[in-house]
Amino acid sequence: MAVEGLASYRRCIDRLERGWPPFLNRHRVTGQIITRGEQRKWLVRIFLGRDANGKQKFHNHMVHGNKKDAEAYRNKILPTCAIHLGNGVK
Predict the structure, then answer these.
(1) Which residues contact 48 (CB under 8 A, 6 or more apart)?
(2) Structural domain contains residue 49
(3) What is the Cα–Cα distance from 16 to 77, expressed in whole angstroms?
(4) What pLDDT is recorded for position 79?
(5) Domain that holds residue 59
(6) The CA-based dihedral angle spanning residues 13, 18, 23, 24, taken in that order and rounded to the nearest 10 degrees
(7) CA atoms lying within 13 Å on the CB side of residue 28
(8) I want to staple 65 with a disulfide (CB 3.0 to 4.6 A). Which of 6, 39, 51, 69 is the partner?
(9) Residue 54, in any domain of the structure
């Protein structure tokens, strides 16, 4: 029984060294895509930081279309929002 546990542990370590699971190696995507009302309406929301009073600031934009259109808009606008914050997107 101990040998089975050791083999399972080694398989786990091997997988991690090869980059498994794949989501561990991906960069985190910032921004939210929220469905609004009917289908085919999406709110793209990107956090811009806080103002002098500590209030959160967001870039909000309503996208009419499918979710891929909303993701494309988010990916297009995200670098400009990151530059606005002063930290570039890798």
Answers:
(1) 57, 58, 59, 81, 84, 85
(2) yes
(3) 33
(4) 81
(5) 27-85
(6) 60
(7) 3
(8) 69
(9) yes
Both tokens assigned to 59 = 């870039």
* Total of domains in the chain: 1
Q: Is residue 61 part of a domain?
A: yes
Tell whether 33 is covered by a domain. yes
**Mean pLDDT of successive 10-residue stretches along the chain, which has 90 residues:** 65 67 56 88 90 89 94 88 55
Q: What is the pTM of this model?
A: 0.60
Separation CA 18–CA 13 (nearest Å) = 9
28 three-class SS: coil
pLDDT value, residue 1: 47
